[in-house]
Write a structure and sequence with these properties.
The protein is built from eleven helices and no strands. The protein is mostly helical. The radius of gyration is 22 Å and the shape is globular.
Amino acid sequence: MNQHTGHIHTSWTSLVYLLALTLVSTFVLQFLVVAIDFIWNGGMEDLMKQGKSVNSYIHKPFILYLLLMAGTVGTFLIPPLVLQRIERYQIYFPRQSKGEQIWLITFVFLFAFSPLMHLVSEWNAQMSLPEALRDVEQWMHDKEESMKVLFERVIMVDSIPLLLLNIVLLALLPAIAEEFYFRGTLFHILNRLFNNSHLTVWIVAIVFSAIHLQFYGFFPRMLLGAFFGYMLVWTKNIWIPVFAHFVNNAMVTILAFIYTKNGKAYEDLQSQENYSIFVYIGSLILTGLIGYWFYRYTHKKATIHGARLDKDTDIR
């Protein structure tokens, strides 16, 4: 039973709180990392030259990793946790149990979708805007190249310790932080506002993809975001999309490690060979079937849980 007797925030107030917390937390944590670099290396001139972007620290791996961690924690983890503490009457991180089988279904779903995601990524990478939007397209290219340089520097490693570090910083931490932020807090706030879970799933998926500023991977990431959203809607358990997000990121991280160990470059990782049309068709069919299996399984569990609650109520 909800014991809260104080003022309950409106959806818009909650959204303003979340955005304000995001701005403050992001600034504070990244400022602290820049300050650490200033103390570590010294020199205000060096600080002014190199403190403008994450890519400025490309040759300072320790500071670079700190900035990546600060960006993830400050932007996506601290704000939803603080907001949940402020708004204790809301449940931003539901954790209903759906049985052990749901974890296997989630993993198999991602595996089945992988070839289809590769195809969507290929289409997205060939995206071209009209001539009137040439400046916008150039800006998108610049952002893409900037993220490529950063990603290549961090993910292409050839030692087990760095691989484990990358799994934590690029897979585990982002999975928890981003899912708590997007599928947990932002989804809950917008769903209160729109009162339509389908609309909310896709709006959050669009925001989730756009915030990464990698426009030539926008659509596959948006689809993943939508899948994560429906996983939350159907399971009522935030840890299911967290697990799916982690598996997706970890697979890329491990694959990059394997490529590096075999002497391959980041470009090789990006330009994987295309599958045959039959693989794509099979991926589409399997993704649909497993998605339906996921839906039916979670709804069956919800029906059983509801029946047990009704039975317990009758007994009392």
